[in-house]
Each structure stands twice: as C-alpha cells, then as structure tokens.
Design brief:
Blueprint: H1 2-33, H2 36-63, H3 66-86, H4 92-122, H5 127-156, H6 158-178, H7 188-192, H8 196-203, H9 207-213, H10 215-245, H11 250-279, H12 285-302, H13 308-333, H14 338-366, H15 372-406
Helix pairs in contact: 1-2, 1-4, 1-5, 1-6, 2-4, 2-14, 3-4, 3-6, 4-14, 5-6, 5-11, 5-13, 9-10, 10-11, 10-12, 10-14, 10-15, 11-13, 12-13, 12-15
C-alpha cells in the first residue's frame, strides 16, 4: 500500500486542480461571453462528453495499458489548459468548448482506468481500503479546491487558476509515471490472444449480457444512475434554498453544507477502512442499498427547513452514507474479472453521467415551478424506491441460495457469481 498512498496524493492533487478549475471556468466563461446560455452550453458539452466517453473508455481500458492511459489523460488535460492560456483573447471563447471535450473525455478515461486497476495495484483483498483512501483524497481536494478558488481568482486572476490546474495534472502524471505499478492481470497483448471467452467479453460487453450474467450488478448501476439524478437536484437546489434561508449571505449555508458533507465522507472512509481491515469482509449489495437509502434520506432532510444544527447533522449523515456507498459500489464492481472490469466501469461511468446530466436539465426546469424540497424529495425518493427494490431482490436471492449452500457440492451445482452482503 506504500506506493498506492503516493498515487492517492497524486490523484488528490489533480482533483484539487479540477475543483479549483470548475469554479474558475464557470465564472470565466460568463466574463468572456457575457452570456449565461454560453456557460450552460459549456456544461452541456462537458456532460455529453462524459457520457459518451464512458463507452469509449471501457474499450480503451480493456485493450491498452492502463497506466499509460492515465498518464496520457493527465497530460492531455494539462496541454489543453496551456493552449487556453497561450491563445489570443479573441479565440478563447471558442477554445472553451474544445477544453470541455478534452477535460470531459480525459477525466472519465482516467477514472475508469484507475478504478479498473485497483485490484491489480493493491491486491483484491485490499481494494476496499484503497477505494476509501481515494475517496478521502478527493473529498479533501474538494474542500481545498472550492475554498481556495475564490481567493486564487480574485487575487491572481484566471490565468493563475488555469496554470495551477495544469501543474496539478503534470504532477499527477509524473507521480504515476515514476511509481512501479502493475495495473492489470495480464498484458494487453496477452489479453488479445486469450481464448474466445475473453475475446467475446472484450468485444461484446453489452447491457443484455450483464443482465443475463449479473442482474444485481445491473440494478446497482441503475441505482447509481438515479443517484446521479438526485445529486444534480440537490446541487442545483442548494443555492436557491440557501438564498431563501439568508438572502444577505446565501453562501454561508452552502459552505457549511459542503464542508460538513466532506467531513462525514472522510469519517465514513476511516471507519469503513478499519472495519474492513479487522474483519476481512467487504459489504455487498444489501449494504449498498441500505447506505444509499440513508444518503438520499439525509439529503431530503437537509431541505426540510430545519434549524441550522439539525440540517448540518443531516448533511453529515448524508456525506458519511455517500462515501460508504461509493466505496461499496466500486469495490463490488472490482470483483469482476480483470478482462471485463474496464467495460463494466465504462458502462457505469456513462450511466452515472447520464443521470447527472439529465438531472441538471430536469431539475433546473422543475425549480421554476416547484420548491427545492419538492424537487430534491422527488429525485432522491425515486432513488430510495429503487434501493428498496434492490434490497428485496438481494434478500430473496440470498434466501434462495442458503439451502443450496447447505447441500453437498455436486458436479451440477453452478458457482455463485455474485457477491453477498
């Protein structure tokens, strides 16, 4: 795990630059174009790229060296930011959409490659702990990135923010290059020369195949897509809700919310990592469903108009449950064979980005008519319903499998392919 901790540092540094840039770019677009539509179009292009690149990333990760893909993705993002910095001012508005495509595609590729590589980097038995460390690193990066963005832009300008982001990607790529990491079970050439079963998995990984071989995994991916709807709803509703609480200082509650959410996320990862290390067990579908229910319920409670302290407690619980479910989800998907893992995470990335992007559009439209509580409760309520379905199906399958496990093993008994809680 020693080398992996350095990888977490590098990933956290690039994540810091991304969060810093997320704020700086949104303000920069509006300043350059003077159009809220242009800013919205930039986000739409990036989200569309995130969605489309999930499928492409899955194929690339399955066929090529993952370490090189992650290094290349970081360097491409750094180069695109450098191009924006050096471009004449008159061309920057057009280059912004090129930047949206590059950053959207490369960030998804890097995420799919990294998540697919974790079992090979740290060993399958340590993947839950490793995933928790990555979540902690990103949570800390989010806090620092959002907190420092206003200071960096106000004091040093947009160019400094973009340059800092580019440097963060270079640092991340350098750390990745220097670390002696094994990112896959076999070399791409070996994978390509494997038998017909591996080749079919590399070329025909479809939703239909997944439904037939691992239906619970398909339901988990669907839950994550609906979670994306819920996440977009509270992201868009939060500024409106905060303004209603304190029109003079709307940023106060937003800052409290995200800081508390991140603290809950970090605490959950620490507890999860220690419990997993002590017990040697990894939670499965049932724990994921319960955690997602708690997370969505926590976000709904935040918008119920409670006093500050109870609302912050709800945000803390939502953050803890959010971190827990993400780690359980990623760890569960990583149990898939290495040759299938890349396409599985590519499909997952596309589903999550599709849910978030659709939620951004629908939530914004609904908030013109309905209150933040109504919108957030509707989207997160849908996630709770789907989680209950997942929990019931998982319990039913576990109950049906229990009698078979008590019987003596015979040649006609199929192996259990799915994880259990």
């Amino acid at each position: 795990m020693g080398y992996f901790r350095l990888l977490v540092v590098g990933n956290g540094i690039s994540a810091y630059g991304s969060y810093l840039n997320l704020v700086a770019l949104n303000v920069f677009i509006y300043d350059v174009t003077g159009s809220a539509l242009a800013a919205g179009l930039f986000m739409a292009v990036r989200l569309a790229t995130n969605f489309a690149s999930g499928f492409v990333s899955g194929r690339l990760v399955a066929a090529h060296d993952r370490k090189r893909l992650m290094i290349g993705a970081d360097l491409c993002q750094a180069l695109s930011l450098l191009t924006l910095l050096l471009a004449p001012e008159g061309t920057r508005a057009t280059l912004l959409y090129f930047l949206a495509v590059v950053t959207g595609g490369c960030s998804t590729l890097s995420q799919v490659a990294l998540r697919s590589s974790i079992p090979e980097i740290v060993g399958s038995e340590h993947r839950a702990r490793a995933n928790g460390l990555l979540v902690v690193g990103r949570s800390l990066a989010m806090i620092v990135g959002f907190a420092s963005s206003g200071v960096v832009v106000a004091r040093y300008g947009y160019s400094a923010a973009f340059a800092l982001d580019a440097v963060s990607f270079v640092v991340s790529a350098t750390i990745m290059f220097l670390l002696p990491l094994r990112t896959r079970a076999k070399a791409p050439a070996q994978a390509a020369e494997s038998g017909p079963e591996e080749a079919a998995g590399a070329t025909a990984w479809t939703v239909r195949t997944l439904l037939r071989t691992a239906p619970l995994l398909m339901v988990m991916i669907a839950v994550r897509a609906v979670d994306g709807l819920g996440s977009s709803s509270h992201n868009i509703a939060l500024p409106l809700y905060s303004h209603g609480l304190d029109p003079g200082h709307p940023a106060t509650f937003i800052s409290q919310f995200w800081a508390t959410w991140a603290i809950g996320n970090i605490v959950a990862q620490q507890v999860f990592g220690r419990v997993a290390k002590r017990t040697g067990r990894t939670p499965g579908e049932q724990a994921f469903a319960l955690g997602a229910c708690v997370m969505s319920a926590g976000f709904i409670v935040v918008f119920c108009g409670l006093p500050t302290v109870p609302a912050i407690v709800a945000a803390l619980i939502a953050g803890a449950a959010d971190g827990f479910t993400e780690t359980v989800y990623v760890t569960r998907l990583q149990a898939a064979p290495d040759e299938q893992r890349g396409r599985l995470f590519g499909l997952s990335a596309s589903a999550e980005n599709a849910g978030f992007g659709l939620g951004m559009l629908v939530s914004g439209a609904l908030l013109e008519t309905f209150s933040p509580l109504q919108v957030v409760a509707s989207f997160h309520g849908l996630a709770i319903v789907l989680c209950v379905v997942l929990l019931l199906v998982s319990l039913r399958r576990a109950g049906a499998a229990a009698p078979r496990r008590k019987e003596p093993a015979g040649p006609d008994l199929p192996a259990v392919a799915e994880g259990r809680s």
